[in-house]
Design a protein that fits this description.
heterotrimer, A alpha+beta, B alpha/beta, C mainly alpha, A: 4-stranded antiparallel beta sheet, B: alpha/beta, 7-stranded mixed beta sheet, 18% strand
């Protein structure tokens, strides 16, 4: 969410109810802010299933492949040596590094994709300007309506939020 | 070496100096190797002569002399630096082999502790000053000059050098009343004395072990000590090397107190105190006489029962006698030099009675000057000294202050001499007691000559100019003889010219080229044994010592000889062939004696004998005779030799003059308590027995029942040739085994003839620039030897069956060390070598962990950091000097292989088998080690690998080693098994 | 806690020991768990100074080793590996519990993991850091360590991937990186909380930077949970693979005592065993120092103790199997190592100490009262740490000192440098941990809040 209105709630339950109600009113660009993940928030906001796992899978495979190649090419192709009479292309011996690099790439993929999706790092966000928002990471729960929302209208949306049970409504941006 | 001080810059090797040496080498390289004294032909290296190519070593023949006997050598020289010593195949004392002393002498040449300056009372003097005083102006400065030499005494080591004889003659001619004395603590005197009594002349017995079916060695270490040990070892090996079940072996009986390499190869080893040997000899003689029955001369038969005391070890002796009498003319009885004359007499009599004389044993003149005459021995000199009749004493080499019998108190007497001169390599104990000190030249820096034990005349020619301006015995004698102007080289040529039959120059040149004067061996002397006089010479056998009384045995050390090699780090770190002890000597006791006296290894004891005491650590030695305590001579030096100082205890403190100075009964042994022991929190130091840690390289002697060394008797082997080694099992593998094509190298080691003499260990060290780690290093089990000799004992711990197992990199075709190296620093070459790539190694030491043979060596420190300039000269330029933190190991002397291949390639042919071998194989006196191509079935090594005796150590691991061992065969007397 | 346990109207009777005592309000609990970020304490300074001294000792000993050579250690031929590799394997093992707790238990949805997982993860990171030090300094030529990496070198040579050491490098490297990512991912929301809570501009800025601007929006949480779960899913097989591979350093050789197919599982279990021991060693003091008995409850102690007992039993079983297989194989070398060398050889005292610490001590935890007794647990955990170190020492030094050829046998004696490095590495671990406790939220706050709400929902 960029700029718009924030409604403050005391509990995650209240917040979720508000979201459902607002969506019932036809709001589309809603968002919630909470100190911890609130079960059901995703469904309430109607978010699609995260595609993050696919990225992780793809990068994991890329890592594994490169892991095997970086062993096979130097040892078996570029400079094969008679090492203890063992074959130059020693498949079982190449397994561990293949596996490790697969995991490494996948793990990086997971974090990097997360940061991209969450638009991090971004040390300043408009919502931070909203008075009292610092408690969003401690013990307060906010519902936000983006002013890009087709149904957004300052007075009405504020009223809707209060009717949805918001203790107070603040403007951001 | 860490603790060697660096050379002073002045005497360091400068570029100019190097060029001078190079020049010297060019001179040597000239016609006849050494047509002129090197100093007279300094050439700038710029104009490169055709015969010297940098990188291609040249070999020169010379001889090393020990107590007067020469051993012929070939010395490898790299652009003027001698770097490696090999045996001269044509020389009777070498037959191509070398011992540890010869191998290590190259390091002795470059020893940074060698004396450099001519001194008078510690003050530097010029050679001219010495010349002035003892040469030209002697008449004015010395009373003896006027008195025909009365008051002039010379003390030399025994010598066989015609040149020295010539010069002594001239000195005597000038000063008829001058007296000459010869002394060397280990010089064999009693054999000559025995011969003088028995034959009327001090003749020297010569042996041929190659023609003997039965050899009896009475306290005689034929294979590892004495001037001809290399020859005897080869001869015996040839009679015991078994190619197939049909071959025979000679049989070797040994009676000795402390185990020796000869005892290791013995089929029957009688553990006897040295004093018992006399009784054994007489009993043997008696048994032989009895066996001969009426053929035996009557007088002898009558005399013997008196002479022969109660025969200890009766069964063995009777068996020996039967064995000997069964093979008349093909037996040989040898008495050891340390035994009194009577024992030698008995041995000679047995040989004579059995008709061995003329076949396996005969007599020649001794090559030693004035052999058997009173001038040998210190008695007359000491009398003169005590009488104050010595005005000038000239000591030429040796180290009498250290090696003289303690009761003569020679050091005190020497200090009493106003005018004394000492010529020596080191400012040692004797140098301290003398007024003048003249630095001696190393034999590799000297012109000279000497005779081998059989009389073969062997030239000594220098490989390099004296590093520290040292002088030879001949130089000093020339001064006294008033020949100061003449160069030793000229004098040498003259003495040879006098003997020349044809073109003197050509013969001299040929002698230098070949390293010996062909056909100069002494002819056999016809000596008659007067059997009538014999019985009186046998003496009464010593009554067996009462139970529990101890015998002291002073023995020659396999590493420092009589102490003269004590400053040689290679020898100090060479594990004793028997005890595996380094950097020390110790009082050896048998397990039973140790148990009786409650002694353990490393316990310090006080030895009290003949009114003198000495402290030494105990080392329990399986195979040692009970109640006999052996202590090696040559340690506890306190001269200027930094390496030798303080190593071990000085056994000469118990060495007394007399008929048998080397052993005596009545030894008292008491454990020392306290002092040496470190204070401990739990116990007050005073109550703890003193300990001295001994750096033993192999504490574990039992094979734990593992089939590491495989042994069999000849009989068993004949029944089932393969019985000795188990059938190699097929190695299971998932993968296609690597296919080797083309030239393939391999090695076999015949355990039947390996006596563990350890010459190969030093040879390897010299060839491959193997560093020395010092006592602490050995205590931390960090020895760097690429080749070690493992000793395994089987059976009765008191007299175990000992086997020697030379252990080096096995160059496994499926090497465990290779696949664990993360950086490919150890890989396999196409010709089957396990290669160690030093500059790629990062030192994970994983390879060593996975080496079942533990033959890999790690550079824990920078072992080459403190090498002095001269020590660097000893390095083999063909072998990398390893850096700190890298692994190293045996390379099969790859530098030799590659040079051989390059030479072959230049001649456009494939590298043939032979024409070269590894350093260890080349040094080995018994030829136990054979190296060559295994891909060609006709080569020696290939044939040996096919022998049914051949096996691989730990073959069950499937490492497929390129080194194969031939099972150890012994030929025991069926009567005794 | 009894009344909380017997709280009326609970849907389902809570287990005897609750994972959370009471239902802390979000504000206060946040303050309690963040306060240490801005409150100074003398005890902390003292601890830092002490461990700092140890770190200096480590620095000195290591520099001395690198300057003079590995020879300053007691290592020899045959014992070419000794303290360094022992420490390496020991630390890596300890590292395992962290990931195990945070990843494996997360997948199993063990709610009790919540309040201890960050401490455990931090422990993992610091342990692996210590471990990674040793393969480096034990090299004869440490300055060439990078030759293990495949790069186009001037020599034209490549690493040998048949050796277990490159596997090690990859495994340990990956393990550290992934643990770090996992740890940091979990930290982000708490860093955000710290950003919004700590007094002082500088601190806010600092934590703000590390929080990356986390705003806790529903969409972010949406991906966050998936990513966190995936990381856990990746870390779990990873943690198993790492000690498998470490064990291969030994198992791929021929050495009796090393050459064993049981090693991979045996090492992993041993690792988790030692890891949990170290977790206890750390948690018990933290718990009382910061008065967190209601967050790190008897339930946690109880569960960890049970895990110690379980893994301890498996370790004991592994010892037994080794001895049995050695005897059953009839291989003289194996038999000597396990039937003679270990129990009766030069290191027999170490061996029996290992048996006592690793096999007997955990048997205490059959008794429930001892499982929740912090003091007993603490002492036991220390003993197990010692026991696991001696186990690694026996495997490495014990086996090496007596292998195939008796002629090569030798006893290893550590030098003062070996001992300094051992104590120094312990100090470094404490040092890092002390810093962690001062500057990082060491109990996952947001997860705790989530847990609180979850429990409340259950109770309703």
């Amino acid at each position: 969410m960029h700029t718009g209105l924030l409604g403050e709630f005391a509990s995650p339950e209240a917040m979720l109810q508000a979201v459902r109600r607002l969506r019932g009113l036809g709001y589309e660009r809603l968002d919630t802010f909470s100190p911890h993940p609130v079960p059901g928030a995703s469904r309430a906001l109607g978010l699609p299933r995260s595609r993050l796992p696919r990225a992780v899978l793809v990068w994991g495979l890329v890592g594994a492949a490169s892991g095997y190649l970086i062993q096979w090419w130097p040892n078996a192709v570029d400079y094969p040596l008679n090492v203890g009479g063992r074959p130059a292309h020693a498949v079982p011996a190449f397994v561990p590094i293949t596996f490790e690099l697969g995991i490494l790439f996948a793990a990086f993929a997971a974090l990097v994709t997360l940061l991209l999706r969450a638009g991090l790092p971004a040390l300043w966000r408009p919502v931070f300007e909203a008075e009292g928002f610092e408690r969003a990471s401690i013990d307060r729960y906010f519902v936000g309506i983006d002013d890009a929302d087709p149904r957004f209208d300052h007075e009405r949306s504020a009223r809707d939020l209060l009717e949805a049970g918001a203790a107070r409504v603040v403007r951001t941006g | 070496m860490h603790h060697l001080p660096p050379l002073s810059g002045a005497s360091g090797l400068t570029r100019r100096a190097l060029f001078e040496w190079v020049g010297a080498s060019l001179a040597l390289a000239g016609v006849g190797g050494c047509a002129e004294p090197p100093t007279e032909q300094i050439l700038p290296y710029a104009t490169q002569p055709p015969e010297v190519t940098p990188g291609i070593p040249r070999y020169y023949a010379t001889s090393m002399v020990l107590d007067g006997f020469a051993t012929g050598l070939l010395v490898e020289s790299h652009v003027g630096r001698p770097t490696k010593i090999e045996g001269n195949p044509d020389h009777p004392a070498s037959l191509g082999a070398t011992g540890a002393y010869e191998q290590a002498s190259i390091l002795g040449l470059y020893d940074p502790h060698r004396a450099r300056a001519l001194l008078e009372r510690g003050q530097p003097r010029a050679w001219s000053a010495f010349l002035e005083r003892y040469g030209l102006a002697a008449p004015r400065s010395h009373r003896w000059a006027a008195a025909g030499g009365a008051g002039l005494h010379l003390l030399l080591e025994p010598t066989s050098s015609p040149l020295v004889a010539e010069l002594l003659g001239r000195v005597r001619a000038a000063y008829p009343r001058a007296q000459v004395h010869f002394h060397a603590p280990l010089a064999p005197l009693s054999p000559l004395e025995a011969a003088r009594r028995l034959l009327g002349r001090p003749l020297l017995a010569q042996y041929d072990l190659g023609r003997a079916d039965v050899v009896v060695a009475l306290d005689a270490d034929l294979l590892a000590s004495g001037p001809f040990h290399l020859r005897y070892a080869r001869q015996l090996a040839e009679r015991r090397r078994v190619a197939g079940p049909t071959d025979g072996m000679s049989r070797l009986y040994v009676a000795e107190a402390t185990p020796t390499p000869t005892g290791v190869l013995a089929d029957h080893r009688v553990r006897a105190r040295s004093a018992e040997v006399h009784g054994i000899a007489l009993a043997l003689l008696a048994a032989v006489v009895a066996a001969l029955g009426r053929d035996a001369p009557g007088g002898l038969a009558a005399a013997l029962p008196r002479a022969a005391g109660p025969a200890a070890h009766g069964d063995q002796v009777r068996a020996m006698a039967r064995d000997l009498t069964a093979r008349p003319g093909a037996g040989l009885v040898v008495a050891g030099d340390r035994q009194p004359p009577a024992v030698h007499v008995a041995a000679h009599l047995v040989n004579a009675l059995l008709g061995n004389v003329g076949r396996t044993v005969w007599w020649t003149e001794s090559p030693i000057l004035e052999a058997g005459e009173p001038s040998h021995g210190l008695g007359p000199l000491v009398d003169a000294l005590r009488a104050g009749a010595v005005e000038t004493l000239v000591v030429l080499e040796g180290n009498p202050s250290y090696t003289a019998p303690a009761d003569l108190e020679l050091p005190r007497l020497l200090r009493g001499v106003a005018d004394s001169v000492y010529l020596g390599l080191f400012e040692n104990e004797t140098a301290r007691d003398c007024r003048w000190f003249v630095p001696a030249a190393h034999y590799l820096e000297s012109w000279g000559d000497a005779r081998a034990r059989d009389g073969t005349l062997s030239p000594v020619q220098p490989l390099i100019r004296p590093l520290y301006g040292g002088r030879t015995v001949a130089d000093v004698l020339a001064v006294l003889a008033g020949l100061a102007g003449r160069s030793t080289y000229d004098l040498l040529r003259e003495t040879h010219a006098r003997r020349a039959t044809g073109d003197a120059a050509a013969e001299f040149e040929a002698a230098l080229r070949e390293g010996l004067v062909a056909g100069s061996a002494f002819p056999r002397a016809d000596a008659r044994i007067d059997l009538a006089r014999a019985p009186s010479l046998l003496g009464p056998a010593a009554a067996p010592a009462p139970e529990g009384t101890l015998e002291l045995d002073l023995v020659q050390d396999a590493r420092v000889y009589d102490g003269r090699f004590a400053d040689n780090p290679w020898l100090q770190e060479l594990p004793d062939p028997m005890t595996k002890l380094t950097w020390d000597n110790a009082a050896l006791v048998s397990p039973r004696t140790a148990a009786r006296l409650g002694l353990a290894n490393e316990a310090v004891v006080e030895l009290a004998c003949r009114g003198r005491t000495l402290r030494a650590p105990v080392l329990v030695q399986p195979g040692q005779a009970d109640d006999a305590v052996s202590l090696a001579l040559g340690y506890g030096r306190d001269g200027a030799e930094a390496v030798a100082r303080g190593v071990g205890v000085n056994a000469f403190g118990l060495f007394l003059a007399g008929e048998s100075p080397f052993f005596s009964g009545g030894l008292a042994l008491t454990p020392v308590v306290g002092r040496e022991a470190p204070p401990s929190p739990v116990m007050p130091p005073a109550r703890r027995p003193a300990r001295h840690r001994l750096a033993v390289t192999q504490p574990h002697r039992s094979a734990q029942g593992r089939a590491i060394v495989r042994r069999a008797t000849l009989a068993e082997y004949r029944e089932a040739p393969r019985a000795a080694p188990a059938q190699p099992r097929p190695v299971q593998t998932l993968y296609e085994p690597h296919r080797y094509e083309g030239v393939q190298w391999g090695m076999t080691i015949d355990l039947t003839v390996c006596s563990g003499c350890s010459a190969c260990v030093v040879a390897c060290q010299a060839e491959n620039n193997v560093p020395v780690v010092g006592r602490d290093g050995v205590l931390g089990s960090r020895e760097m030897h690429w080749l070690r000799i493992d000793r395994y004992d089987e059976g009765d711990p008191d007299s175990p069956a000992v086997s020697m197992l030379p252990m080096l990199c096995q160059h496994c075709e499926r090497a465990p060390c290779e696949y664990v190296c993360p950086v490919n620093a150890t890989v396999h070459s196409p010709d089957g070598l396990n290669e160690q790539v030093y500059n790629r190694c990062i030192g994970t030491r994983f390879c060593s962990n996975n080496c079942p043979y533990k033959v890999r060596r790690f550079n824990w420190f920078d072992y080459n950091a403190d090498r002095t300039e001269t020590q660097k000269m000893a390095m083999n330029p063909d072998v990398t000097v390893r850096a700190r933190g890298v692994m190293e190991k045996c390379t099969f002397c790859v530098q030799r292989i590659r040079r051989h291949e390059i030479e072959a390639r230049i001649e456009g042919r494939p590298a043939p088998d032979g024409g070269f071998t590894t350093a260890c194989a080349q040094a080995c006196p018994t030829g136990a080690i054979v190296f060559g191509r295994i891909d060609d079935p006709r080569t020696d090594v290939a044939r040996l690998r096919r022998q049914p005796r051949a096996y691989a150590v730990l073959e069950e691991l499937g490492t497929e080693p390129r080194v194969r061992y031939l099972a150890r065969l012994t030929n025991p007397n069926p009567e005794l098994t | 806690m009894a009344q909380t346990a017997a709280r009326p109207g609970t849907a389902r009777p809570e287990p005897f020991h609750p994972v959370l005592v009471g239902r802390p309000r979000e504000g206060p609990i946040t303050d309690q768990l963040l306060r240490h970020l801005w409150t100074r304490s003398r005890a902390w300074l003292v601890l830092l100074a002490l461990s700092g001294g140890g770190v200096l000792l480590l620095l000195f000993a290591v520099s001395y080793t690198v300057a003079v050579g590995i020879g300053v250690w007691g290592n020899s031929i045959p014992v070419a590996w000794a303290f360094a590799i022992t420490n390496f394997v020991w630390w890596i093992g300890i590292g395992h519990a962290g990931t195990f707790i945070s990843a494996f238990l997360l997948l199993l949805q063990q709610s009790w993991r919540t309040s201890i997982n960050r401490v455990a993860e931090a422990m993992t990171l610091f342990a692996v850091l210590n471990a990674a030090l040793f393969p480096l300094i034990h090299l004869g030529r440490p300055w060439f360590f990078y030759w293990l990496a495949p790069y186009p070198a001037t020599m034209g040579v490549w690493p040998n991937f048949k050796s277990a050491l490159p596997w090690d490098a990859a495994a340990v490297g990956t393990y550290f990186t992934v643990s770090l990512l996992f740890w940091y991912t979990g930290l982000i929301p708490d860093l955000a909380a710290a950003r919004d809570r700590v007094p002082g501009r500088l601190r806010r800025r600092l934590y703000g930077v590390f929080a990356l601007g986390w705003q806790g929006s529903g969409r972010d949480w949406h991906h966050y949970r998936v990513a966190y779960g995936l990381l856990a899913g990746l870390a779990t097989p990873l943690v198993v693979s790492v000690h498998n591979i470490v064990s291969l350093d030994f198992a791929i050789t021929q050495l009796p005592g090393w050459h064993s197919t049981i090693f991979p599982p045996y090492f992993v279990v041993g690792a988790i065993y030692s890891g949990f021991a170290m977790v206890v060693t750390l948690l018990v003091p933290i718990r009382s120092l910061f008065g967190l008995q209601h967050v790190i409850t008897a339930r946690h102690l109880d569960n960890v103790a049970k895990l110690l007992l379980a893994t301890g039993l498996i370790v004991a079983y592994s010892y037994l199997t080794e001895v049995f297989v050695a005897w059953y194989s009839g291989n003289p070398f194996e038999m000597y190592t396990f039937l003679v060398n270990f129990p009766r050889g030069p290191y027999a005292p170490m061996y029996w100490l290992m048996i006592v610490c690793n096999v007997l001590v955990p048997q205490l935890f059959w008794a429930g009262s001892l499982r929740t007794n912090a003091a007993v647990l603490f002492v036991a955990s220390l003993l197990i740490n010692v026991g696991m170190w001696t186990e690694r020492f026996m495997i490495i030094v014990g086996s090496l000192s007596r292998d195939f050829l008796p002629s090569a046998w030798a006893v290893y004696r550590p030098t003062w440098v070996d001992l300094s490095i051992l104590s120094g590495t312990l100090a470094l671990f404490v040092f890092l941990f002390v810093l962690f406790l001062r500057f990082v939220p060491f109990v996952p706050i947001s997860e705790l809040k989530e847990l609180t709400h979850e429990l409340e929902r259950k109770e309703r």
